[in-house]
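The following block was generated as part of the benchmark described in Methods. Ligand: adenosine-5'-diphosphate.
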Amino acid sequence: MKKLKKLFCLSLVVTMLFTLMTGCTSSSSKANKYIGEGQGKHGTLKVEVTVENQKIKDITVLETKENPILSEPVFNQIKALMIDKNNANVDAVSGSTATSEAYINAVQAALKKAGLNLSADKISVEPEKEKQTTQEYDVVVIGAGGAGFSAAIEARNAGANVVILEKMPSIGGNTLISGGEMNAPGNWVQKKLNINNDSAETFYNDTIKGGDNKGVPELVKIFTDNALASAEWLKDYIKVKFLEDQLFQFGGHSVKRALIPEGHTGAEMISKFKSKADELKIPIKLQTKAEEFITEGGKVVGVKAKNAAGQDLVFKAKKGVIIATGGFGSNVEMRKKYNPEMDEKYLTTDAPGTTGDGIIMTEKLNAATMGMEYIQTYPISNPKTGLISLVADSRFDGAILINQEGKRFVEELERRDVISKAILAQSGGYTYQLWNQDIDNISKTISVHKDEYEELVKEGILYKAETLEDAAKHFQIPVETLKATVARVNEFAKTGKDLDFNYRGKFVSLEKGPYYIQKAVPSVHHTMGGLVIDTNAKVKTKDGKVIEGLYAAGEVTGVIHGTNRLGGNAISDIVTFGRIAGKYAAEGK
Ligand code: ADP
Protein backbone atom coordinates (compact mmCIF):
# COMPACT_ATOMS: atom_id res chain seq x y z
CA MET A 1 0.00 0.00 0.00
CA LYS A 2 2.84 2.37 1.04
CA LYS A 3 4.69 1.47 -2.16
CA LEU A 4 1.65 2.30 -4.21
CA LYS A 5 1.28 5.67 -2.49
CA LYS A 6 4.96 6.47 -3.19
CA LEU A 7 4.55 5.52 -6.83
CA PHE A 8 1.46 7.72 -7.11
CA CYS A 9 3.29 10.71 -5.54
CA LEU A 10 6.21 10.24 -7.91
CA SER A 11 4.04 10.11 -11.01
CA LEU A 12 2.19 13.22 -9.78
CA VAL A 13 5.45 15.15 -9.46
CA VAL A 14 6.56 13.99 -12.93
CA THR A 15 3.23 15.03 -14.43
CA MET A 16 3.39 18.45 -12.76
CA LEU A 17 6.92 18.98 -13.97
CA PHE A 18 5.95 17.95 -17.51
CA THR A 19 2.97 20.30 -17.50
CA LEU A 20 5.12 23.17 -16.28
CA MET A 21 7.76 22.46 -18.93
CA THR A 22 5.35 22.13 -21.84
CA GLY A 23 3.48 25.19 -20.56
CA CYS A 24 6.70 27.21 -20.82
CA THR A 25 7.97 25.94 -24.13
CA SER A 26 4.65 26.23 -25.99
CA SER A 27 3.49 29.57 -24.63
CA SER A 28 4.22 31.33 -27.93
CA SER A 29 1.95 28.93 -29.90
CA LYS A 30 -0.76 28.69 -27.25
CA ALA A 31 -4.35 28.83 -28.48
CA ASN A 32 -6.51 31.39 -26.71
CA LYS A 33 -10.25 31.81 -26.91
CA TYR A 34 -12.06 35.15 -27.13
CA ILE A 35 -15.76 35.89 -27.09
CA GLY A 36 -17.46 38.52 -29.23
CA GLU A 37 -21.03 39.62 -29.89
CA GLY A 38 -22.98 41.09 -32.79
CA GLN A 39 -26.62 42.08 -33.29
CA GLY A 40 -28.53 39.85 -35.70
CA LYS A 41 -32.02 40.06 -37.13
CA HIS A 42 -33.49 38.36 -34.07
CA GLY A 43 -31.11 39.41 -31.31
CA THR A 44 -27.60 38.85 -30.02
CA LEU A 45 -25.24 36.45 -31.74
CA LYS A 46 -22.29 35.30 -29.65
CA VAL A 47 -19.16 33.60 -30.99
CA GLU A 48 -15.98 32.19 -29.54
CA VAL A 49 -12.89 32.70 -31.68
CA THR A 50 -9.82 30.52 -31.10
CA VAL A 51 -6.62 32.38 -31.91
CA GLU A 52 -3.23 30.74 -32.22
CA ASN A 53 -0.04 32.41 -33.44
CA GLN A 54 -1.98 35.51 -34.48
CA LYS A 55 -4.22 33.35 -36.62
CA ILE A 56 -7.92 32.50 -36.52
CA LYS A 57 -7.93 28.79 -35.72
CA ASP A 58 -11.62 28.21 -35.14
CA ILE A 59 -14.94 30.03 -34.70
CA THR A 60 -17.77 28.54 -32.67
CA VAL A 61 -21.24 30.03 -32.40
CA LEU A 62 -22.17 30.03 -28.72
CA GLU A 63 -25.50 31.78 -28.91
CA THR A 64 -27.82 32.57 -31.82
CA LYS A 65 -31.45 33.47 -32.36
CA GLU A 66 -31.14 33.62 -36.14
CA ASN A 67 -33.11 31.40 -38.51
CA PRO A 68 -31.04 28.17 -38.69
CA ILE A 69 -31.54 27.65 -42.42
CA LEU A 70 -30.62 31.22 -43.35
CA SER A 71 -27.64 31.03 -40.96
CA GLU A 72 -26.17 27.94 -42.54
CA PRO A 73 -24.17 29.64 -45.34
CA VAL A 74 -22.97 32.27 -42.87
CA PHE A 75 -21.81 29.86 -40.18
CA ASN A 76 -20.13 27.58 -42.71
CA GLN A 77 -18.92 29.61 -45.69
CA ILE A 78 -17.92 32.82 -43.91
CA LYS A 79 -16.25 30.83 -41.15
CA ALA A 80 -14.22 28.77 -43.64
CA LEU A 81 -13.20 31.91 -45.53
CA MET A 82 -12.13 33.78 -42.40
CA ILE A 83 -10.01 30.86 -41.22
CA ASP A 84 -8.56 30.16 -44.65
CA LYS A 85 -7.58 33.79 -45.39
CA ASN A 86 -7.05 34.84 -41.76
CA ASN A 87 -9.15 37.90 -42.52
CA ALA A 88 -12.29 39.02 -40.69
CA ASN A 89 -13.30 41.59 -43.28
CA VAL A 90 -15.76 39.52 -45.30
CA ASP A 91 -18.70 40.37 -47.55
CA ALA A 92 -22.17 39.40 -46.30
CA VAL A 93 -23.97 36.40 -47.81
CA SER A 94 -26.89 37.82 -49.78
CA GLY A 95 -30.29 36.89 -48.38
CA SER A 96 -28.68 36.49 -44.94
CA THR A 97 -27.25 40.00 -44.65
CA ALA A 98 -28.27 40.75 -41.07
CA THR A 99 -27.00 37.38 -39.81
CA SER A 100 -23.76 37.79 -41.79
CA GLU A 101 -23.16 41.23 -40.32
CA ALA A 102 -23.85 39.99 -36.80
CA TYR A 103 -21.40 37.13 -37.30
CA ILE A 104 -18.69 39.33 -38.82
CA ASN A 105 -19.10 41.96 -36.08
CA ALA A 106 -18.99 39.28 -33.39
CA VAL A 107 -15.75 37.82 -34.78
CA GLN A 108 -14.20 41.26 -35.14
CA ALA A 109 -15.19 42.11 -31.55
CA ALA A 110 -13.56 38.90 -30.33
CA LEU A 111 -10.39 39.65 -32.30
CA LYS A 112 -10.28 43.13 -30.83
CA LYS A 113 -10.20 41.56 -27.37
CA ALA A 114 -7.29 39.44 -28.61
CA GLY A 115 -5.55 42.66 -29.61
CA LEU A 116 -5.58 41.59 -33.25
CA ASN A 117 -6.65 43.45 -36.32
CA LEU A 118 -7.27 40.84 -38.98
CA SER A 119 -9.30 43.01 -41.32
CA ALA A 120 -7.33 43.34 -44.53
CA ASP A 121 -8.97 44.09 -47.91
CA LYS A 122 -12.56 42.90 -48.05
CA ILE A 123 -12.95 39.36 -49.33
CA SER A 124 -15.96 37.39 -50.51
CA VAL A 125 -16.97 33.78 -50.35
CA GLU A 126 -15.79 32.14 -53.57
CA PRO A 127 -18.89 30.81 -55.33
CA GLU A 128 -18.92 27.18 -56.39
CA LYS A 129 -18.40 26.40 -60.07
CA GLU A 130 -20.31 23.83 -62.10
CA LYS A 131 -18.14 21.28 -63.88
CA GLN A 132 -20.67 20.92 -66.68
CA THR A 133 -22.30 24.05 -68.02
CA THR A 134 -24.95 22.00 -69.83
CA GLN A 135 -26.82 19.40 -67.82
CA GLU A 136 -29.78 17.22 -68.65
CA TYR A 137 -32.65 16.18 -66.37
CA ASP A 138 -36.20 14.94 -66.83
CA VAL A 139 -37.67 17.73 -64.72
CA VAL A 140 -36.18 21.10 -63.77
CA VAL A 141 -37.77 22.88 -60.81
CA ILE A 142 -37.15 26.61 -60.35
CA GLY A 143 -37.32 27.72 -56.71
CA ALA A 144 -36.57 25.89 -53.46
CA GLY A 145 -39.62 26.98 -51.43
CA GLY A 146 -42.51 24.79 -50.36
CA ALA A 147 -43.98 24.48 -53.87
CA GLY A 148 -40.60 23.67 -55.44
CA PHE A 149 -39.76 20.98 -52.88
CA SER A 150 -43.22 19.39 -53.10
CA ALA A 151 -42.97 19.33 -56.91
CA ALA A 152 -39.43 17.97 -57.00
CA ILE A 153 -40.12 15.21 -54.46
CA GLU A 154 -43.30 14.09 -56.22
CA ALA A 155 -41.60 14.14 -59.64
CA ARG A 156 -38.70 12.11 -58.23
CA ASN A 157 -41.10 9.56 -56.80
CA ALA A 158 -42.78 9.30 -60.19
CA GLY A 159 -39.43 8.16 -61.54
CA ALA A 160 -38.03 11.42 -62.90
CA ASN A 161 -34.47 12.63 -62.64
CA VAL A 162 -34.93 16.06 -61.03
CA VAL A 163 -32.92 19.18 -60.18
CA ILE A 164 -33.92 22.26 -58.15
CA LEU A 165 -32.49 25.67 -59.06
CA GLU A 166 -32.47 28.29 -56.28
CA LYS A 167 -31.14 31.77 -56.84
CA MET A 168 -30.46 32.59 -53.19
CA PRO A 169 -27.58 31.15 -51.12
CA SER A 170 -30.12 29.38 -48.91
CA ILE A 171 -33.31 27.45 -49.48
CA GLY A 172 -36.82 28.13 -48.22
CA GLY A 173 -38.18 31.38 -49.71
CA ASN A 174 -41.29 32.76 -48.06
CA THR A 175 -42.26 29.28 -46.89
CA LEU A 176 -39.31 29.22 -44.50
CA ILE A 177 -40.09 32.51 -42.78
CA SER A 178 -43.85 32.03 -42.66
CA GLY A 179 -45.76 30.78 -39.63
CA GLY A 180 -46.10 27.50 -41.55
CA GLU A 181 -49.73 26.94 -40.53
CA MET A 182 -51.78 24.83 -42.91
CA ASN A 183 -55.53 24.52 -43.35
CA ALA A 184 -56.87 21.01 -43.71
CA PRO A 185 -60.57 20.32 -43.22
CA GLY A 186 -61.38 17.18 -41.23
CA ASN A 187 -57.83 16.88 -39.91
CA TRP A 188 -56.69 14.65 -37.05
CA VAL A 189 -56.28 17.51 -34.55
CA GLN A 190 -59.85 18.70 -35.19
CA LYS A 191 -61.01 15.16 -34.37
CA LYS A 192 -59.01 15.20 -31.16
CA LEU A 193 -60.47 18.57 -30.19
CA ASN A 194 -64.00 17.43 -31.06
CA ILE A 195 -64.37 19.85 -33.94
CA ASN A 196 -66.68 17.86 -36.15
CA ASN A 197 -68.38 20.57 -38.19
CA ASP A 198 -65.75 21.03 -40.89
CA SER A 199 -65.66 19.71 -44.44
CA ALA A 200 -63.95 20.32 -47.78
CA GLU A 201 -67.14 22.08 -48.83
CA THR A 202 -67.11 24.55 -45.92
CA PHE A 203 -63.44 25.17 -46.61
CA TYR A 204 -64.26 25.77 -50.29
CA ASN A 205 -66.97 28.29 -49.39
CA ASP A 206 -64.68 30.15 -46.95
CA THR A 207 -61.88 30.32 -49.52
CA ILE A 208 -64.06 31.46 -52.41
CA LYS A 209 -65.83 34.01 -50.23
CA GLY A 210 -62.54 35.16 -48.69
CA GLY A 211 -61.27 35.98 -52.19
CA ASP A 212 -64.48 37.76 -53.23
CA ASN A 213 -65.39 35.00 -55.71
CA LYS A 214 -62.35 35.72 -57.85
CA GLY A 215 -60.63 32.33 -57.43
CA VAL A 216 -61.07 29.85 -60.31
CA PRO A 217 -63.81 27.53 -58.93
CA GLU A 218 -62.50 24.35 -60.58
CA LEU A 219 -59.02 24.86 -59.15
CA VAL A 220 -60.22 26.03 -55.74
CA LYS A 221 -62.18 22.77 -55.58
CA ILE A 222 -59.02 20.75 -56.28
CA PHE A 223 -57.27 22.78 -53.59
CA THR A 224 -59.93 22.31 -50.92
CA ASP A 225 -60.56 18.64 -51.79
CA ASN A 226 -56.85 17.80 -51.54
CA ALA A 227 -55.71 19.95 -48.61
CA LEU A 228 -56.19 17.15 -46.09
CA ALA A 229 -54.25 14.65 -48.23
CA SER A 230 -51.46 17.21 -48.59
CA ALA A 231 -51.30 17.66 -44.81
CA GLU A 232 -51.21 13.90 -44.28
CA TRP A 233 -48.45 13.59 -46.89
CA LEU A 234 -46.42 16.22 -45.01
CA LYS A 235 -47.01 14.47 -41.69
CA ASP A 236 -46.57 10.84 -42.74
CA TYR A 237 -44.12 11.01 -45.62
CA ILE A 238 -42.14 14.23 -45.23
CA LYS A 239 -42.23 13.75 -41.42
CA VAL A 240 -43.27 17.29 -40.61
CA LYS A 241 -44.27 17.49 -36.95
CA PHE A 242 -47.51 19.31 -36.23
CA LEU A 243 -48.74 20.21 -32.76
CA GLU A 244 -51.12 17.50 -31.60
CA ASP A 245 -53.53 19.57 -29.54
CA GLN A 246 -53.67 23.07 -30.99
CA LEU A 247 -55.15 24.68 -34.12
CA PHE A 248 -55.54 28.24 -35.34
CA GLN A 249 -58.66 29.84 -36.71
CA PHE A 250 -57.36 32.51 -39.03
CA GLY A 251 -59.52 35.40 -40.20
CA GLY A 252 -62.24 34.48 -42.71
CA HIS A 253 -62.41 30.80 -41.66
CA SER A 254 -65.62 29.57 -40.13
CA VAL A 255 -63.89 26.94 -37.99
CA LYS A 256 -60.50 26.19 -36.41
CA ARG A 257 -58.74 24.18 -39.12
CA ALA A 258 -55.12 25.35 -39.38
CA LEU A 259 -52.52 22.80 -38.29
CA ILE A 260 -49.49 24.34 -36.59
CA PRO A 261 -46.00 22.99 -37.29
CA GLU A 262 -43.62 22.49 -34.41
CA GLY A 263 -41.91 25.78 -33.58
CA HIS A 264 -44.80 27.66 -35.27
CA THR A 265 -42.70 28.49 -38.35
CA GLY A 266 -42.03 27.16 -41.84
CA ALA A 267 -38.53 26.11 -40.74
CA GLU A 268 -39.95 22.75 -39.63
CA MET A 269 -41.29 22.14 -43.13
CA ILE A 270 -38.26 23.34 -45.04
CA SER A 271 -35.77 21.37 -42.95
CA LYS A 272 -37.84 18.18 -43.40
CA PHE A 273 -38.21 18.85 -47.14
CA LYS A 274 -34.44 19.23 -47.37
CA SER A 275 -33.87 15.92 -45.56
CA LYS A 276 -36.29 14.17 -47.93
CA ALA A 277 -34.67 15.77 -50.99
CA ASP A 278 -31.25 14.61 -49.72
CA GLU A 279 -32.60 11.11 -49.12
CA LEU A 280 -33.96 11.03 -52.69
CA LYS A 281 -30.68 12.48 -53.97
CA ILE A 282 -32.30 15.51 -55.58
CA PRO A 283 -29.54 18.06 -56.30
CA ILE A 284 -30.21 21.66 -55.25
CA LYS A 285 -28.18 24.24 -57.14
CA LEU A 286 -27.89 27.28 -54.87
CA GLN A 287 -27.14 30.78 -56.15
CA THR A 288 -28.34 29.63 -59.56
CA LYS A 289 -30.83 32.01 -61.09
CA ALA A 290 -33.12 30.81 -63.85
CA GLU A 291 -33.31 33.55 -66.45
CA GLU A 292 -34.92 32.29 -69.62
CA PHE A 293 -36.81 29.31 -70.99
CA ILE A 294 -35.51 27.29 -73.89
CA THR A 295 -38.26 26.34 -76.31
CA GLU A 296 -38.49 24.04 -79.30
CA GLY A 297 -41.56 24.35 -81.49
CA GLY A 298 -43.50 26.08 -78.73
CA LYS A 299 -42.60 23.46 -76.12
CA VAL A 300 -40.44 24.36 -73.11
CA VAL A 301 -37.43 22.04 -73.11
CA GLY A 302 -35.11 23.67 -70.63
CA VAL A 303 -33.89 26.71 -68.74
CA LYS A 304 -30.97 29.07 -69.12
CA ALA A 305 -29.49 30.10 -65.80
CA LYS A 306 -26.57 32.01 -64.33
CA ASN A 307 -24.79 31.10 -61.13
CA ALA A 308 -22.86 33.18 -58.62
CA ALA A 309 -19.58 32.15 -60.23
CA GLY A 310 -20.82 33.96 -63.36
CA GLN A 311 -21.25 30.79 -65.43
CA ASP A 312 -23.94 30.65 -68.07
CA LEU A 313 -25.69 27.33 -67.59
CA VAL A 314 -28.19 25.29 -69.53
CA PHE A 315 -30.50 22.87 -67.75
CA LYS A 316 -32.24 20.72 -70.33
CA ALA A 317 -35.58 19.24 -69.28
CA LYS A 318 -36.70 16.15 -71.15
CA LYS A 319 -40.16 16.17 -69.60
CA GLY A 320 -40.93 19.52 -68.08
CA VAL A 321 -39.94 22.69 -66.24
CA ILE A 322 -41.80 23.68 -63.08
CA ILE A 323 -41.94 27.33 -62.07
CA ALA A 324 -42.05 27.62 -58.28
CA THR A 325 -40.43 31.03 -57.93
CA GLY A 326 -42.90 32.48 -55.42
CA GLY A 327 -44.53 35.91 -55.47
CA PHE A 328 -43.29 39.46 -56.09
CA GLY A 329 -43.70 41.08 -52.68
CA SER A 330 -40.03 42.11 -52.58
CA ASN A 331 -40.13 43.80 -55.99
CA VAL A 332 -41.43 47.31 -55.31
CA GLU A 333 -41.38 48.36 -58.97
CA MET A 334 -43.45 45.35 -59.96
CA ARG A 335 -45.85 45.98 -57.07
CA LYS A 336 -46.33 49.55 -58.25
CA LYS A 337 -46.77 48.44 -61.86
CA TYR A 338 -49.76 46.31 -60.95
CA ASN A 339 -51.05 48.29 -57.97
CA PRO A 340 -49.69 51.85 -57.55
CA GLU A 341 -50.98 51.92 -53.96
CA MET A 342 -48.39 49.26 -52.95
CA ASP A 343 -45.39 51.56 -53.13
CA GLU A 344 -42.33 52.19 -50.93
CA LYS A 345 -44.46 53.25 -47.97
CA TYR A 346 -44.99 49.56 -47.31
CA LEU A 347 -42.25 47.39 -45.90
CA THR A 348 -42.53 43.69 -46.65
CA THR A 349 -42.64 40.49 -44.64
CA ASP A 350 -41.23 38.62 -47.64
CA ALA A 351 -38.00 36.81 -48.45
CA PRO A 352 -35.64 38.79 -50.72
CA GLY A 353 -35.88 36.22 -53.54
CA THR A 354 -39.57 36.85 -54.15
CA THR A 355 -39.16 39.26 -57.06
CA GLY A 356 -41.65 37.86 -59.57
CA ASP A 357 -39.06 36.19 -61.82
CA GLY A 358 -41.43 33.44 -62.92
CA ILE A 359 -43.95 36.01 -64.16
CA ILE A 360 -41.30 38.09 -65.93
CA MET A 361 -39.72 35.02 -67.58
CA THR A 362 -43.02 33.79 -69.00
CA GLU A 363 -43.97 37.13 -70.57
CA LYS A 364 -42.10 36.12 -73.74
CA LEU A 365 -44.18 32.95 -73.92
CA ASN A 366 -47.45 34.89 -73.93
CA ALA A 367 -48.43 33.33 -70.59
CA ALA A 368 -51.68 34.48 -69.02
CA THR A 369 -51.79 36.08 -65.59
CA MET A 370 -54.71 37.03 -63.39
CA GLY A 371 -55.37 39.09 -60.27
CA MET A 372 -52.01 40.86 -60.40
CA GLU A 373 -53.39 43.94 -58.65
CA TYR A 374 -54.38 41.96 -55.55
CA ILE A 375 -51.52 42.38 -53.12
CA GLN A 376 -52.08 41.42 -49.53
CA THR A 377 -50.64 43.22 -46.55
CA TYR A 378 -50.23 41.35 -43.28
CA PRO A 379 -51.92 43.57 -40.70
CA ILE A 380 -49.74 42.86 -37.68
CA SER A 381 -46.11 43.40 -38.65
CA ASN A 382 -43.08 45.00 -37.06
CA PRO A 383 -43.19 48.79 -37.69
CA LYS A 384 -39.38 48.94 -37.93
CA THR A 385 -38.50 45.90 -40.05
CA GLY A 386 -41.77 45.00 -41.77
CA LEU A 387 -41.38 41.41 -40.52
CA ILE A 388 -44.50 39.45 -39.72
CA SER A 389 -45.16 39.23 -35.97
CA LEU A 390 -45.71 35.66 -34.85
CA VAL A 391 -45.92 36.62 -31.18
CA ALA A 392 -49.05 38.51 -32.23
CA ASP A 393 -50.70 35.24 -33.24
CA SER A 394 -52.37 35.65 -29.84
CA ARG A 395 -54.92 37.55 -31.97
CA PHE A 396 -56.37 34.18 -32.96
CA ASP A 397 -57.08 33.42 -29.30
CA GLY A 398 -58.71 36.64 -28.20
CA ALA A 399 -56.25 39.55 -28.35
CA ILE A 400 -57.95 42.80 -29.34
CA LEU A 401 -56.89 45.63 -31.64
CA ILE A 402 -57.13 49.23 -30.52
CA ASN A 403 -56.13 52.58 -31.95
CA GLN A 404 -54.16 55.46 -30.42
CA GLU A 405 -57.42 56.75 -28.95
CA GLY A 406 -57.85 53.45 -27.06
CA LYS A 407 -60.83 52.23 -29.07
CA ARG A 408 -61.49 49.04 -31.02
CA PHE A 409 -62.07 49.72 -34.70
CA VAL A 410 -62.39 46.37 -36.50
CA GLU A 411 -63.33 42.76 -35.87
CA GLU A 412 -60.04 41.07 -34.94
CA LEU A 413 -60.76 37.92 -36.95
CA GLU A 414 -61.67 39.80 -40.11
CA ARG A 415 -59.80 39.17 -43.35
CA ARG A 416 -56.28 40.53 -43.57
CA ASP A 417 -57.15 43.11 -46.23
CA VAL A 418 -60.06 44.43 -44.19
CA ILE A 419 -57.99 44.72 -41.01
CA SER A 420 -55.06 46.29 -42.88
CA LYS A 421 -57.29 48.92 -44.46
CA ALA A 422 -58.92 49.65 -41.13
CA ILE A 423 -55.51 50.07 -39.46
CA LEU A 424 -54.31 52.48 -42.14
CA ALA A 425 -57.43 54.57 -41.57
CA GLN A 426 -56.54 55.10 -37.87
CA SER A 427 -54.42 57.99 -36.59
CA GLY A 428 -50.80 57.33 -37.53
CA GLY A 429 -51.75 54.29 -39.65
CA TYR A 430 -50.89 51.80 -36.93
CA THR A 431 -52.63 49.68 -34.31
CA TYR A 432 -51.96 48.28 -30.87
CA GLN A 433 -52.69 44.67 -30.08
CA LEU A 434 -53.62 44.01 -26.47
CA TRP A 435 -53.86 40.70 -24.66
CA ASN A 436 -53.32 39.29 -21.19
CA GLN A 437 -51.68 36.32 -19.54
CA ASP A 438 -54.87 34.25 -19.72
CA ILE A 439 -54.83 34.58 -23.52
CA ASP A 440 -51.14 33.78 -23.70
CA ASN A 441 -51.79 30.66 -21.64
CA ILE A 442 -53.97 29.50 -24.54
CA SER A 443 -51.94 30.73 -27.53
CA LYS A 444 -48.51 30.24 -25.88
CA THR A 445 -47.02 32.56 -28.50
CA ILE A 446 -44.69 34.31 -26.07
CA SER A 447 -42.86 31.16 -25.05
CA VAL A 448 -42.90 29.70 -28.59
CA HIS A 449 -41.59 32.93 -30.15
CA LYS A 450 -39.46 33.96 -27.16
CA ASP A 451 -36.70 35.45 -29.33
CA GLU A 452 -39.10 37.66 -31.26
CA TYR A 453 -40.79 38.65 -27.99
CA GLU A 454 -37.52 39.69 -26.36
CA GLU A 455 -36.45 41.62 -29.44
CA LEU A 456 -39.76 43.51 -29.60
CA VAL A 457 -39.52 44.35 -25.90
CA LYS A 458 -35.96 45.58 -26.36
CA GLU A 459 -37.07 47.75 -29.28
CA GLY A 460 -39.93 49.21 -27.18
CA ILE A 461 -42.50 47.87 -29.67
CA LEU A 462 -44.01 45.42 -27.18
CA TYR A 463 -44.59 46.22 -23.53
CA LYS A 464 -45.54 44.01 -20.62
CA ALA A 465 -47.70 45.91 -18.16
CA GLU A 466 -49.05 44.84 -14.78
CA THR A 467 -52.09 47.08 -15.14
CA LEU A 468 -54.13 48.71 -17.89
CA GLU A 469 -53.03 52.12 -16.56
CA ASP A 470 -49.44 51.11 -17.08
CA ALA A 471 -50.11 49.78 -20.60
CA ALA A 472 -51.93 52.97 -21.58
CA LYS A 473 -49.20 55.18 -20.13
CA HIS A 474 -46.43 53.38 -22.05
CA PHE A 475 -47.99 54.24 -25.41
CA GLN A 476 -49.73 57.45 -24.29
CA ILE A 477 -53.22 56.06 -24.87
CA PRO A 478 -56.04 57.78 -22.91
CA VAL A 479 -56.41 55.53 -19.84
CA GLU A 480 -60.11 55.96 -19.28
CA THR A 481 -61.01 55.15 -22.88
CA LEU A 482 -58.83 52.05 -22.83
CA LYS A 483 -60.41 50.89 -19.57
CA ALA A 484 -63.90 51.45 -20.99
CA THR A 485 -62.99 49.49 -24.17
CA VAL A 486 -61.64 46.60 -22.11
CA ALA A 487 -64.66 46.63 -19.77
CA ARG A 488 -66.92 46.30 -22.80
CA VAL A 489 -64.88 43.39 -24.19
CA ASN A 490 -65.08 41.71 -20.76
CA GLU A 491 -68.84 42.07 -20.93
CA PHE A 492 -68.87 40.51 -24.42
CA ALA A 493 -66.70 37.68 -23.12
CA LYS A 494 -69.41 36.94 -20.55
CA THR A 495 -72.40 37.19 -22.88
CA GLY A 496 -70.63 35.63 -25.88
CA LYS A 497 -71.92 38.43 -28.09
CA ASP A 498 -69.79 41.27 -29.44
CA LEU A 499 -72.29 44.09 -29.93
CA ASP A 500 -69.71 46.36 -31.57
CA PHE A 501 -67.93 44.31 -34.25
CA ASN A 502 -69.57 40.89 -34.08
CA TYR A 503 -66.37 39.03 -33.17
CA ARG A 504 -66.62 35.51 -34.60
CA GLY A 505 -64.37 33.78 -32.05
CA LYS A 506 -64.69 33.56 -28.28
CA PHE A 507 -63.48 36.56 -26.31
CA VAL A 508 -61.42 35.90 -23.19
CA SER A 509 -61.93 38.23 -20.24
CA LEU A 510 -59.20 40.88 -20.01
CA GLU A 511 -59.98 41.62 -16.38
CA LYS A 512 -56.73 40.23 -15.05
CA GLY A 513 -53.18 41.33 -15.86
CA PRO A 514 -50.40 41.13 -16.67
CA TYR A 515 -51.05 42.65 -20.08
CA TYR A 516 -49.08 42.67 -23.31
CA ILE A 517 -49.45 45.60 -25.68
CA GLN A 518 -47.74 45.70 -29.06
CA LYS A 519 -47.54 48.32 -31.80
CA ALA A 520 -48.00 47.04 -35.37
CA VAL A 521 -48.43 48.11 -38.99
CA PRO A 522 -49.53 46.32 -42.17
CA SER A 523 -46.69 45.08 -44.40
CA VAL A 524 -46.76 43.56 -47.92
CA HIS A 525 -47.14 39.82 -47.43
CA HIS A 526 -48.58 37.87 -50.34
CA THR A 527 -49.20 38.52 -54.00
CA MET A 528 -52.43 36.75 -54.87
CA GLY A 529 -52.10 37.26 -58.61
CA GLY A 530 -49.92 35.26 -60.94
CA LEU A 531 -49.82 32.68 -63.71
CA VAL A 532 -52.94 30.93 -64.89
CA ILE A 533 -52.65 27.13 -64.76
CA ASP A 534 -54.92 24.25 -65.71
CA THR A 535 -55.89 21.28 -63.52
CA ASN A 536 -52.54 19.57 -64.30
CA ALA A 537 -50.71 22.75 -63.21
CA LYS A 538 -49.75 23.47 -66.82
CA VAL A 539 -49.22 27.15 -67.62
CA LYS A 540 -51.84 28.66 -69.91
CA THR A 541 -51.39 31.30 -72.58
CA LYS A 542 -53.43 34.45 -73.00
CA ASP A 543 -55.48 32.70 -75.67
CA GLY A 544 -56.40 29.85 -73.38
CA LYS A 545 -54.01 27.18 -74.73
CA VAL A 546 -51.43 25.40 -72.57
CA ILE A 547 -47.67 25.79 -72.93
CA GLU A 548 -46.34 22.27 -73.39
CA GLY A 549 -43.57 21.35 -70.99
CA LEU A 550 -44.26 24.25 -68.60
CA TYR A 551 -45.88 23.87 -65.17
CA ALA A 552 -46.30 26.28 -62.26
CA ALA A 553 -47.22 25.97 -58.59
CA GLY A 554 -47.33 28.08 -55.45
CA GLU A 555 -47.36 31.83 -54.96
CA VAL A 556 -46.30 32.41 -58.58
CA THR A 557 -49.78 31.29 -59.69
CA GLY A 558 -52.87 33.44 -59.41
CA VAL A 559 -55.80 31.05 -59.54
CA ILE A 560 -56.78 30.24 -55.96
CA HIS A 561 -56.91 33.20 -53.62
CA GLY A 562 -58.81 35.83 -55.62
CA THR A 563 -58.60 39.26 -54.04
CA ASN A 564 -57.38 38.02 -50.67
CA ARG A 565 -55.62 34.89 -49.39
CA LEU A 566 -56.94 33.53 -46.12
CA GLY A 567 -54.42 32.73 -43.38
CA GLY A 568 -53.11 29.16 -43.52
CA ASN A 569 -54.11 28.74 -47.19
CA ALA A 570 -50.65 29.31 -48.69
CA ILE A 571 -49.09 26.09 -47.41
CA SER A 572 -52.13 24.02 -48.43
CA ASP A 573 -51.94 25.62 -51.90
CA ILE A 574 -48.19 25.27 -52.51
CA VAL A 575 -48.05 21.65 -51.33
CA THR A 576 -51.19 20.58 -53.22
CA PHE A 577 -50.31 22.19 -56.53
CA GLY A 578 -46.58 21.54 -56.10
CA ARG A 579 -47.40 17.82 -55.90
CA ILE A 580 -49.73 18.03 -58.90
CA ALA A 581 -47.10 19.86 -60.98
CA GLY A 582 -44.43 17.33 -59.99
CA LYS A 583 -46.55 14.34 -60.86
CA TYR A 584 -47.72 15.60 -64.26
CA ALA A 585 -44.35 17.03 -65.24
CA ALA A 586 -42.75 13.64 -64.56
CA GLU A 587 -45.37 11.99 -66.72
CA GLY A 588 -45.05 14.74 -69.34
CA LYS A 589 -48.85 15.15 -69.26
P1 ADP B 1 -43.75 29.15 -52.68
O1 ADP B 1 -44.44 29.46 -51.39
O2 ADP B 1 -44.60 29.35 -53.86
O3 ADP B 1 -43.04 27.84 -52.64
P2 ADP B 1 -41.39 30.59 -51.84
O4 ADP B 1 -41.28 32.06 -51.69
O5 ADP B 1 -41.45 29.79 -50.59
O6 ADP B 1 -42.61 30.29 -52.81
O7 ADP B 1 -40.16 30.03 -52.69
C1 ADP B 1 -39.80 30.57 -53.93
C2 ADP B 1 -38.30 30.37 -54.12
O8 ADP B 1 -37.95 30.61 -55.48
C3 ADP B 1 -37.46 31.32 -53.29
O9 ADP B 1 -36.53 30.60 -52.51
C4 ADP B 1 -36.78 32.21 -54.33
O10 ADP B 1 -35.50 32.66 -53.93
C5 ADP B 1 -36.69 31.27 -55.51
N1 ADP B 1 -36.55 31.96 -56.82
C6 ADP B 1 -37.21 33.06 -57.24
N2 ADP B 1 -36.83 33.39 -58.49
C7 ADP B 1 -35.91 32.47 -58.88
C8 ADP B 1 -35.13 32.29 -60.06
N3 ADP B 1 -35.21 33.13 -61.09
N4 ADP B 1 -34.27 31.25 -60.11
C9 ADP B 1 -34.15 30.40 -59.06
N5 ADP B 1 -34.84 30.53 -57.92
C10 ADP B 1 -35.72 31.55 -57.82
